Amino acid sequence: LQFILFLVFSINMLKIPEFKHPQKNTSSLKTPIPKKVYIALSQHVGKPAQPVVGKGDKVKLGQLIAKAYGKISANIHSPVEGKVQDITYFNHPILKRCKTIIIESENNFEGDFKEKPISEIRGLKPKDLLEIIFEKGIVGMGGAQFPTHVKLSPPKKIDILIVNGCECEPYLVCDHILMKENLLGILKGVDIINFILKTEKIIFCLEDNKREIKELILNELKNFTPIFSENFNLEIKVFKTRYPQGAEKQLIFSATKRVVPAGKLPFQVGVLVQNVATLYAVYEAVYKNKPLIERLVTFAGKILEKPQNLWVRIGTLIKDLLESQILRLKSEPKKLIFGGPMMGIAQESLEVPILKGTGGVLFFGDRDLIFKDEFNCIRCGRCVEVCPMNLLPCRIYTLIKNSEFSSLKEFYISDCIECGSCSYVCPAGIPLSSYIKWAKSLNL
Predict the structure, then answer these.
(1) Which listed residue, of 80, 271, 359, 421, carries a Cα 20 to 30 Å from 430's Cα?
(2) Which one, of 312, 345, 317, lies nearest residue 420 by Cα?
């Protein structure tokens, strides 16, 4: 059975163009403090945070400005020092519109987040670390934006921690650059989470387009001494570069041969997956007392003069990055995508802010866009062959087109990870993933 499942999961992954150069060979750069930031209160899965500041209030860098509301929510902090200009609805890259705290920066203070002495950290207990992660507003930074303190409190024993360094989306390399430049911080984050979960094994997962990272990890481990973990059993696994290798359930099977059943979550098979950027944010929260107020973002695309990886404050508008000449375009953008080209979301405006989960921003011009005419489904089955969740996208699409929404659950529509593989291979030009995403948004 394991062999059959291995074949199924291996076949149902695509080899697609990566487009990761030249941004893959650059070093990260810090952007200047923006003059104004737009902090969406929905920076995470779950309920929006509730403002604890009002219009006209002065705020400090890193100050709590919105508090987690409900069991699944996350705190939000100010990425600048300044004055709250307004709290109103503004553009959101995922939700279209969202309640937003607008802060006008009053100086260029970048913060002084220095690493604490080990003596101040060593005695912390798992509950202390969880509280810090909650207080500092850490969420999943691989795109899911799930509150990390909730994910680290599973109702079942976790025996394997998977570190996700695959980054399988085309164009995006921010995780790759983060591992090259901040590997020690990531390993310290692994140590923290391993201690909280008390796992038996850690698997650091990479794709084979990042083989040099494996050597960096091995060299770093020679001198690395965990502060918290008594058992730091770390193994590195390198997989073929395939899409969507970095998706949670696919990665769990590749690394452990454990299958997460339909409708179930990874913790139910004793596994927890954490993205490398999240681990680095956990390290900064614990060691530097730093909230999640900035992140590394890949900016790429055919019309971008210089693709690069930038440390950007949360709430920075794309429009402001362009107007300040931090980013320069060769021609007028015709499509702006937040995320990668497979799972990303096209934007209607340049006035959209960076979120905690924004790993990439892509710019495309007229010549880069290929618009396919949508024809009737010919039942070729190619979408079924490539679906990493072993669903029937063509059948789900037919039900959606015929408004037979009550039957969608029978075909496990909620298990769709919206990877876009079905749309990518469809010879009829049907945007299958878009149809499924829309139907899921109806909460039927």
Answers:
(1) 359
(2) 345
